[in-house]
Specification:
243 residues; mainly alpha; Serine Threonine Protein Phosphatase 5, Tetratricopeptide repeat; 2 domains; globular
Amino acid sequence: MLRQCLANNPDDIDAVAQIAKGLRATGQYGEALSFYERLAAHRRQDKVANIMAPGSAPWDIDIACLHWLCGDHTKAMRMMHALAAGILDGSIQYATDAAGGMSQGLLLYYMAVSDNKPEEMSFALGYLRHLRDRLKRIMIQNWPCAVASYYLGDVPFAKVMEDVNERVVTMPPIDPATLELGRRIRLCDALFHDGVKSRARGDEAHCLARMRECSALENPVVEQEWYLARYEVEKAGSQRSAR
C-alpha cells in the first residue's frame, strides 16, 4: 500500500519514511539504506527546514548505522566520526537526542571497539567527555547522558539502570504506552552499551549475552542499538555455523 502511494506520488516523504523504517525492521538493510538516503537528500533540499534548523542532519545516524549493518564498517565509522566532529565544530547545530549529541559518540565508540580502532575509541571517549563537561546542569539529566557517564567511569551500571527505570512525572500525565516505550528504549541502550563496555575489556561472552538481551526486547523501531544488537547476535550465530 505504501509503495503504491509512493508510486502515485514520488514526493510523499511520509511514505518514504515509513517504507524505510519497515525495511530496516525486517532486516532489508540495503534497500532501507536507499530510502534513508532519499530522506536525507530531501532534507538537504528543504529550504524552509534549512532556515528553521540550519546545520541539522536528522537521517545521517540512520544512514551510518545502515552502512555498518550492510558490512561497510569503514564508511559507517567515517560518517559517525564526521557527525561527532560536526557537533564539536558547530557545523551540526541540532542533535538527534536530548543530550546535545551524545548518541553519535556512543555509537562511534561501539564501532571503534568492535573493529579495534584505538584512535577512534580515544576520539569517541574524548567527545563524550567534552559534551559532558559543556552540558548545562539540567541537560546532564537527559538520556543518554547516564550511558556516557558509565563509559567515562563516572557512575556504575546500577546508576544507569536507575535512570532506565525512572518514572517521568508530567502535567498532563503521559500515556502509559508512551512511558513504557521510553523505558524500553532506555533499557535497549543500557543493555547494548554494557555489552560494548564488556567487549572493550575483553569479555566477549558477556557482550553477546547483553546483545541477546537487547535484541530480545520488542523492537522500539527508532533505536539504532536494537538493530545493532540484532546484527551482533546474527553475526555470532553465523560464525558458529561456519565452524
